[in-house]
Design goal:
Blueprint (H helix, E strand, L loop, with lengths): L17 E2 L5 E8 L2 H10 L4 E5 L1 H5 L7 H15 L3 E5 L27 H6 L1 H14 L4 E6 L5 H21 L8 E6 L2 H5 L1 H7 L2 E4 L1 H9 L17 H17 L2 E4 L10 H6 L4 E4 L1 H8 L5
Parallel strand pairs: 2-3, 2-9, 3-4, 4-5, 5-6, 6-7, 7-8
Antiparallel strand pairs: 1-2
This protein binds phosphoenolpyruvate (PEP) and magnesium ion.
Magnesium ion binds next to α9.
Amino acid sequence: KEKVTQLNSADYDPEREIYTEDGERVWILGNAGNTEDVAAAVKAGAEGIGLFRSEFLYMESEDFPDEECQYKAYSEAAGICGERPLTIRTLDIGGDKALPYMQMDKEENPFLGYRAIRISLACPQQFRTQIRAILRAGAKGNVRMMFPMITTLNEFRTARQMVDECIAELDKEGLPFDRNLKVGMMIETPASVLLADEFAKMADFFSIGTNDLTQYIMAADRGNANISDLYDPHAEAVTKAIEIAIKAAAKAGIEISMCGEYAADPSAKELLLRLGLRKFSVSIPAIRRFKSTVID
Ligand code: PEP
Ligand code: MG
């Protein structure tokens, strides 16, 4: 039985730890787009950042941010997090997000097109710059790297191999970095769910992106009001996909969290806990809501 207590802000305790009925720890992480968000999330009680959307750094720059610029931004965020994990998602551009300085062809179906990891793998020089900056920021805190929109095993393998190459480079250059930095992936395409067992052998962790996963599983554009009833993360097919991903992670013994908006949906919490989810990465207001909820 769940007891929900809305604490007023004077009573609000950001350090509160959340447990399931059976006494299992539940982790509340934050989603962030910049260092201010990271600071606000930590202040609100986030036990780490489950999703740092690095594309905002790119969108606010006049040109591709160079390694030093990225290193500075990620290090600052890592410093704010201290021992808490900071999960930096590599550039997730395309779909509904554009870079003013990057020429992109007009596409019929941008969400099925040239976006996220597909762009990173096609632009290895830019991708290496970002990977190096993340690895170097790893020397400043508990940093992790996560790839968006993974669809094929080869995409993850290639990206992971690029990380290894950057590690070898940094080693040669003698720059401080984290050689054991964890490398994970978003589960947000049906293909990644169907191959979750295989991906779980290669990735250090999974994070379920229900915003995209819902639109791809339901074949319903996340921004189209005409079919918004179909774009429903509560749909049985989406639940099934989430369950498959959680089981695959458990079987392989890797960590799994959820960073899509569904993680913050109060009506989903019971189901997600029942499916075995223990790590919820949510927006800043939702951190407070979660932490004001006593589960006992
Ligand atoms: C998602 O797809 O659920 C997600 C967290 O990524 P974004 O909303 O940035 O696409
Ligand atoms: Mg997404």
